[in-house]
Amino acid sequence: DPSLRRLADRAGVRIGTAVDMNALAEDRRYRGTTAREFDSVTAENVMKWESVEPQRGVYDWKPADDLVRYARAHGQVVRGHTLVWHSQLPGWLTSGVADGSIGSAELRGILRNHITTEVKRYKGKIQQWDVVNEVFEEDGSLRNSIWLQELGPSYIADAFRWAHAADPKAKLFLNDYNVEGVNAKSTAYYELAKRLRAEGVPVQGFGIQGHLAIQYGFPEQVAENLARFGALGMRTAFTEVDVRMILPVDATKSATQASYFRKLLDACLGARSCTSFTVWGYTDRYSWVPGVFGGQGAATPMDEEYGRKPAYGALRAGL
Ligand code: XIL
Protein backbone atom coordinates (compact mmCIF):
# COMPACT_ATOMS: atom_id res chain seq x y z
CA ASP A 1 0.00 0.00 0.00
CA PRO A 2 2.32 2.78 -1.21
CA SER A 3 2.08 6.22 0.32
CA LEU A 4 1.56 9.37 -1.73
CA ARG A 5 5.11 10.45 -0.94
CA ARG A 6 6.60 7.24 -2.23
CA LEU A 7 4.67 7.55 -5.48
CA ALA A 8 5.52 11.24 -5.76
CA ASP A 9 9.17 10.45 -5.28
CA ARG A 10 9.05 8.10 -8.27
CA ALA A 11 7.15 10.69 -10.28
CA GLY A 12 9.81 13.32 -9.52
CA VAL A 13 7.54 15.78 -7.71
CA ARG A 14 7.11 16.82 -4.09
CA ILE A 15 3.77 16.11 -2.45
CA GLY A 16 3.01 18.48 0.39
CA THR A 17 0.45 19.54 2.95
CA ALA A 18 -0.26 22.55 5.10
CA VAL A 19 0.28 21.61 8.74
CA ASP A 20 -1.89 22.70 11.64
CA MET A 21 0.54 22.91 14.58
CA ASN A 22 -2.14 22.47 17.22
CA ALA A 23 -3.22 19.23 15.58
CA LEU A 24 0.40 18.13 15.27
CA ALA A 25 0.87 18.62 19.01
CA GLU A 26 -2.35 16.87 20.06
CA ASP A 27 -3.16 14.17 17.54
CA ARG A 28 -0.93 11.13 17.04
CA ARG A 29 -2.83 10.02 13.98
CA TYR A 30 -2.19 13.41 12.43
CA ARG A 31 1.53 13.23 13.17
CA GLY A 32 1.76 9.75 11.73
CA THR A 33 -0.24 10.42 8.59
CA THR A 34 1.56 13.69 7.86
CA ALA A 35 4.88 11.86 8.02
CA ARG A 36 3.71 8.85 6.04
CA GLU A 37 2.00 10.61 3.14
CA PHE A 38 3.93 13.83 2.51
CA ASP A 39 7.50 14.88 1.74
CA SER A 40 6.88 18.64 1.92
CA VAL A 41 5.18 20.69 4.62
CA THR A 42 3.93 24.26 4.82
CA ALA A 43 3.00 26.04 8.06
CA GLU A 44 -0.72 26.73 7.81
CA ASN A 45 -0.37 29.73 10.15
CA VAL A 46 2.70 29.72 12.37
CA MET A 47 5.15 31.45 10.01
CA LYS A 48 2.77 34.35 9.36
CA TRP A 49 3.70 37.73 10.78
CA GLU A 50 1.00 37.84 13.49
CA SER A 51 2.32 34.51 14.78
CA VAL A 52 6.04 35.23 14.75
CA GLU A 53 5.95 38.82 16.05
CA PRO A 54 2.72 39.25 18.04
CA GLN A 55 4.09 42.33 19.81
CA ARG A 56 6.62 44.64 18.30
CA GLY A 57 10.07 43.21 18.84
CA VAL A 58 8.69 40.21 20.74
CA TYR A 59 9.09 37.06 18.68
CA ASP A 60 7.53 33.65 19.10
CA TRP A 61 9.37 31.16 16.94
CA LYS A 62 8.46 28.07 18.92
CA PRO A 63 5.71 26.57 16.72
CA ALA A 64 7.58 27.39 13.51
CA ASP A 65 10.77 25.88 14.91
CA ASP A 66 8.76 22.79 15.90
CA LEU A 67 7.54 22.36 12.34
CA VAL A 68 11.03 22.72 10.89
CA ARG A 69 12.29 20.13 13.37
CA TYR A 70 9.41 17.74 12.58
CA ALA A 71 10.13 18.09 8.86
CA ARG A 72 13.80 17.35 9.32
CA ALA A 73 13.03 14.30 11.46
CA HIS A 74 10.77 12.93 8.73
CA GLY A 75 12.85 13.75 5.67
CA GLN A 76 10.51 16.49 4.48
CA VAL A 77 11.28 19.84 2.88
CA VAL A 78 9.59 23.03 4.12
CA ARG A 79 7.80 25.68 2.07
CA GLY A 80 7.92 29.00 3.90
CA HIS A 81 4.57 30.81 4.04
CA THR A 82 4.39 33.80 3.96
CA LEU A 83 6.46 37.00 4.31
CA VAL A 84 4.38 39.84 2.83
CA TRP A 85 0.59 39.64 2.94
CA HIS A 86 -2.29 42.01 3.67
CA SER A 87 -3.86 39.50 6.07
CA GLN A 88 -2.86 38.02 9.45
CA LEU A 89 -0.67 41.03 10.21
CA PRO A 90 0.02 41.80 13.87
CA GLY A 91 -2.29 44.30 15.51
CA TRP A 92 0.58 46.58 16.55
CA LEU A 93 1.50 47.03 12.89
CA THR A 94 -1.95 47.65 11.41
CA SER A 95 -2.99 49.98 14.23
CA GLY A 96 0.33 51.83 14.10
CA VAL A 97 -0.15 52.51 10.40
CA ALA A 98 -3.81 53.44 10.91
CA ASP A 99 -3.15 55.96 13.70
CA GLY A 100 -0.12 57.44 11.95
CA SER A 101 2.39 56.46 14.62
CA ILE A 102 4.18 54.31 12.03
CA GLY A 103 4.95 56.36 8.93
CA SER A 104 5.95 55.09 5.49
CA ALA A 105 9.72 55.28 5.92
CA GLU A 106 9.53 53.46 9.23
CA LEU A 107 7.15 50.87 7.78
CA ARG A 108 9.60 50.09 4.99
CA GLY A 109 12.31 49.45 7.59
CA ILE A 110 9.92 47.28 9.60
CA LEU A 111 9.13 45.18 6.53
CA ARG A 112 12.78 44.83 5.65
CA ASN A 113 13.58 43.76 9.19
CA HIS A 114 10.71 41.26 9.25
CA ILE A 115 11.80 39.59 6.03
CA THR A 116 15.47 39.56 6.94
CA THR A 117 14.90 38.22 10.45
CA GLU A 118 12.54 35.42 9.45
CA VAL A 119 14.39 34.28 6.34
CA LYS A 120 17.76 34.30 8.14
CA ARG A 121 16.36 32.31 11.03
CA TYR A 122 15.49 29.45 8.69
CA LYS A 123 18.34 29.92 6.25
CA GLY A 124 19.17 26.60 4.57
CA LYS A 125 16.08 24.96 6.06
CA ILE A 126 13.40 26.32 3.77
CA GLN A 127 13.45 25.28 0.15
CA GLN A 128 10.87 27.73 -1.18
CA TRP A 129 9.46 30.93 0.31
CA ASP A 130 6.13 32.51 -0.60
CA VAL A 131 7.64 36.00 -0.48
CA VAL A 132 4.55 37.94 -1.50
CA ASN A 133 1.05 36.54 -1.19
CA GLU A 134 -2.13 37.71 -2.93
CA VAL A 135 -0.90 41.04 -4.29
CA PHE A 136 -3.32 41.29 -7.24
CA GLU A 137 -7.08 41.80 -7.49
CA GLU A 138 -9.18 39.64 -9.80
CA ASP A 139 -9.03 42.28 -12.57
CA GLY A 140 -5.22 42.30 -12.53
CA SER A 141 -4.78 45.59 -10.67
CA LEU A 142 -2.50 45.65 -7.63
CA ARG A 143 -4.36 45.00 -4.40
CA ASN A 144 -4.95 48.09 -2.33
CA SER A 145 -3.08 46.85 0.76
CA ILE A 146 -1.18 48.84 3.38
CA TRP A 147 1.96 47.83 1.48
CA LEU A 148 0.81 49.41 -1.75
CA GLN A 149 -0.67 52.45 -0.01
CA GLU A 150 2.33 53.19 2.17
CA LEU A 151 5.28 51.97 0.09
CA GLY A 152 4.05 52.02 -3.51
CA PRO A 153 4.44 49.13 -5.99
CA SER A 154 8.21 48.86 -5.49
CA TYR A 155 7.59 46.96 -2.23
CA ILE A 156 7.31 43.77 -4.28
CA ALA A 157 10.79 43.94 -5.83
CA ASP A 158 12.23 45.11 -2.50
CA ALA A 159 10.72 42.10 -0.70
CA PHE A 160 12.34 39.66 -3.14
CA ARG A 161 15.73 41.42 -2.91
CA TRP A 162 15.67 41.38 0.89
CA ALA A 163 14.62 37.73 1.02
CA HIS A 164 17.33 36.77 -1.44
CA ALA A 165 19.99 38.61 0.54
CA ALA A 166 18.93 36.71 3.68
CA ASP A 167 19.02 33.24 2.07
CA PRO A 168 20.46 33.22 -1.46
CA LYS A 169 19.66 29.53 -2.00
CA ALA A 170 15.95 29.60 -1.17
CA LYS A 171 13.64 29.67 -4.19
CA LEU A 172 11.45 32.74 -3.97
CA PHE A 173 7.80 32.63 -5.02
CA LEU A 174 4.85 34.81 -5.86
CA ASN A 175 1.64 33.12 -4.63
CA ASP A 176 -2.10 33.66 -5.13
CA TYR A 177 -5.54 32.07 -5.60
CA ASN A 178 -7.73 32.08 -8.72
CA VAL A 179 -4.62 31.93 -10.88
CA GLU A 180 -4.80 28.28 -11.96
CA GLY A 181 -5.84 29.08 -15.52
CA VAL A 182 -5.13 31.91 -17.93
CA ASN A 183 -7.13 34.94 -16.76
CA ALA A 184 -6.64 38.64 -15.96
CA LYS A 185 -5.13 37.91 -12.57
CA SER A 186 -2.67 35.22 -13.68
CA THR A 187 -1.71 37.39 -16.65
CA ALA A 188 -0.90 40.24 -14.27
CA TYR A 189 1.46 37.83 -12.46
CA TYR A 190 2.98 36.74 -15.74
CA GLU A 191 3.69 40.33 -16.75
CA LEU A 192 5.02 41.19 -13.28
CA ALA A 193 7.31 38.16 -13.21
CA LYS A 194 8.61 38.89 -16.71
CA ARG A 195 9.37 42.49 -15.81
CA LEU A 196 10.99 41.69 -12.45
CA ARG A 197 13.20 39.02 -13.99
CA ALA A 198 14.23 41.37 -16.80
CA GLU A 199 15.26 43.82 -14.08
CA GLY A 200 17.30 41.16 -12.31
CA VAL A 201 14.98 40.86 -9.31
CA PRO A 202 15.37 37.40 -7.72
CA VAL A 203 11.93 35.85 -8.28
CA GLN A 204 12.11 32.19 -9.19
CA GLY A 205 8.66 30.74 -8.73
CA PHE A 206 4.95 31.15 -9.25
CA GLY A 207 2.77 29.53 -6.60
CA ILE A 208 -0.77 28.64 -7.53
CA GLN A 209 -2.83 28.14 -4.40
CA GLY A 210 -5.53 26.02 -6.03
CA HIS A 211 -8.47 26.66 -3.72
CA LEU A 212 -11.23 25.33 -5.97
CA ALA A 213 -14.97 24.86 -5.45
CA ILE A 214 -16.87 22.31 -7.52
CA GLN A 215 -19.85 24.63 -7.92
CA TYR A 216 -17.66 27.10 -9.85
CA GLY A 217 -16.32 24.58 -12.37
CA PHE A 218 -12.77 23.68 -13.27
CA PRO A 219 -10.51 26.53 -14.48
CA GLU A 220 -9.62 26.84 -18.18
CA GLN A 221 -6.13 26.60 -19.67
CA VAL A 222 -4.20 25.42 -16.65
CA ALA A 223 -1.53 23.68 -18.76
CA GLU A 224 -1.07 26.82 -20.88
CA ASN A 225 -0.70 28.92 -17.76
CA LEU A 226 1.98 26.69 -16.25
CA ALA A 227 3.76 26.58 -19.61
CA ARG A 228 4.04 30.35 -19.92
CA PHE A 229 5.70 30.69 -16.51
CA GLY A 230 7.97 27.81 -17.40
CA ALA A 231 8.94 29.64 -20.57
CA LEU A 232 10.15 32.52 -18.39
CA GLY A 233 12.54 30.06 -16.77
CA MET A 234 10.50 29.93 -13.57
CA ARG A 235 9.35 27.11 -11.37
CA THR A 236 5.71 26.66 -10.62
CA ALA A 237 3.97 24.86 -7.77
CA PHE A 238 0.48 24.14 -6.56
CA THR A 239 0.72 25.41 -3.03
CA GLU A 240 -2.68 25.19 -1.25
CA VAL A 241 -4.94 22.81 -3.12
CA ASP A 242 -8.37 22.01 -1.74
CA VAL A 243 -11.69 21.45 -3.50
CA ARG A 244 -14.68 22.51 -1.48
CA MET A 245 -18.34 21.82 -2.12
CA ILE A 246 -21.72 22.90 -0.81
CA LEU A 247 -22.63 20.43 1.92
CA PRO A 248 -23.94 17.78 2.28
CA VAL A 249 -21.50 15.48 0.52
CA ASP A 250 -22.88 12.99 -1.99
CA ALA A 251 -21.27 10.50 -4.34
CA THR A 252 -21.56 12.76 -7.39
CA LYS A 253 -19.91 15.69 -5.65
CA SER A 254 -17.15 13.46 -4.29
CA ALA A 255 -16.46 12.15 -7.79
CA THR A 256 -16.31 15.68 -9.20
CA GLN A 257 -13.99 16.71 -6.39
CA ALA A 258 -11.72 13.75 -7.11
CA SER A 259 -11.55 14.69 -10.79
CA TYR A 260 -10.56 18.28 -9.88
CA PHE A 261 -7.71 17.12 -7.65
CA ARG A 262 -6.61 14.79 -10.40
CA LYS A 263 -6.73 17.44 -13.11
CA LEU A 264 -4.60 19.86 -11.09
CA LEU A 265 -2.13 17.08 -10.32
CA ASP A 266 -2.01 16.04 -13.97
CA ALA A 267 -1.32 19.64 -14.97
CA CYS A 268 1.58 19.75 -12.54
CA LEU A 269 3.00 16.41 -13.67
CA GLY A 270 2.65 17.51 -17.28
CA ALA A 271 4.64 20.70 -16.77
CA ARG A 272 8.40 20.59 -16.48
CA SER A 273 8.26 23.75 -14.37
CA CYS A 274 6.00 22.24 -11.70
CA THR A 275 8.06 20.89 -8.82
CA SER A 276 5.55 20.44 -6.02
CA PHE A 277 1.90 19.81 -5.30
CA THR A 278 0.70 20.83 -1.84
CA VAL A 279 -2.76 20.37 -0.36
CA TRP A 280 -4.12 22.85 2.20
CA GLY A 281 -4.74 20.17 4.78
CA TYR A 282 -5.45 16.54 3.97
CA THR A 283 -8.18 15.68 6.47
CA ASP A 284 -11.54 17.40 6.91
CA ARG A 285 -10.90 17.16 10.65
CA TYR A 286 -8.70 20.27 10.46
CA SER A 287 -9.67 22.03 7.23
CA TRP A 288 -10.06 25.82 7.25
CA VAL A 289 -12.95 25.66 4.76
CA PRO A 290 -16.06 25.25 6.96
CA GLY A 291 -14.99 28.16 9.17
CA VAL A 292 -14.59 30.55 6.26
CA PHE A 293 -17.04 29.47 3.55
CA GLY A 294 -20.48 29.10 5.10
CA GLY A 295 -22.25 25.86 4.26
CA GLN A 296 -19.21 24.45 2.44
CA GLY A 297 -16.64 21.87 3.39
CA ALA A 298 -15.39 18.31 2.80
CA ALA A 299 -12.59 19.95 0.79
CA THR A 300 -9.68 17.60 1.49
CA PRO A 301 -8.71 14.05 0.39
CA MET A 302 -9.56 12.39 3.73
CA ASP A 303 -12.67 12.66 5.87
CA GLU A 304 -12.71 13.65 9.53
CA GLU A 305 -11.74 10.12 10.58
CA TYR A 306 -8.85 9.94 8.12
CA GLY A 307 -10.91 7.77 5.79
CA ARG A 308 -9.67 7.99 2.21
CA LYS A 309 -12.11 9.68 -0.12
CA PRO A 310 -12.21 9.31 -3.91
CA ALA A 311 -9.96 12.38 -4.03
CA TYR A 312 -7.23 10.46 -2.21
CA GLY A 313 -7.57 7.64 -4.71
CA ALA A 314 -7.36 10.14 -7.55
CA LEU A 315 -4.10 11.57 -6.25
CA ARG A 316 -2.68 8.11 -5.79
CA ALA A 317 -3.77 7.02 -9.26
CA GLY A 318 -2.37 10.18 -10.81
CA LEU A 319 1.07 9.92 -9.25
C1 XIL B 1 -5.71 30.29 6.12
C2 XIL B 1 -5.58 29.23 7.22
O1 XIL B 1 -5.85 27.97 6.63
C3 XIL B 1 -6.53 29.51 8.34
O2 XIL B 1 -6.31 28.63 9.42
C4 XIL B 1 -6.38 30.96 8.81
O3 XIL B 1 -7.38 31.24 9.77
C5 XIL B 1 -6.50 31.92 7.65
O4 XIL B 1 -5.56 31.59 6.66
N1 XIL B 1 -4.63 31.72 1.35
C6 XIL B 1 -3.43 31.62 2.04
C7 XIL B 1 -3.40 30.91 3.34
O5 XIL B 1 -2.39 32.01 1.51
O6 XIL B 1 -2.44 31.45 4.22
C8 XIL B 1 -4.76 30.90 4.01
O7 XIL B 1 -4.68 30.09 5.18
C9 XIL B 1 -5.81 30.40 3.05
C10 XIL B 1 -5.90 31.29 1.84
UniProtKB/TrEMBL annotation:
It catalyses: Endohydrolysis of (1->4)-beta-D-xylosidic linkages in xylans. The keyword Cell membrane does not apply. InterPro entries: GH, GH10, GH10_dom. Keywords: Carbohydrate metabolism, Glycosidase, Hydrolase, Polysaccharide degradation, Signal, Xylan degradation. It is an enzyme of class 3 (hydrolase). Residues 1-318 form the GH10 domain. Its EC number is 3.2.1.8. It comes from the Bacteria. Belongs to the glycosyl hydrolase 10 (cellulase F) family. PANTHER family: BETA-XYLANASE, GLYCOSYL HYDROLASE. This is Beta-xylanase. It comes from Streptomyces graminofaciens. The lineage of its organism: Bacteria, Bacillati, Actinomycetota, Actinomycetes, Kitasatosporales.
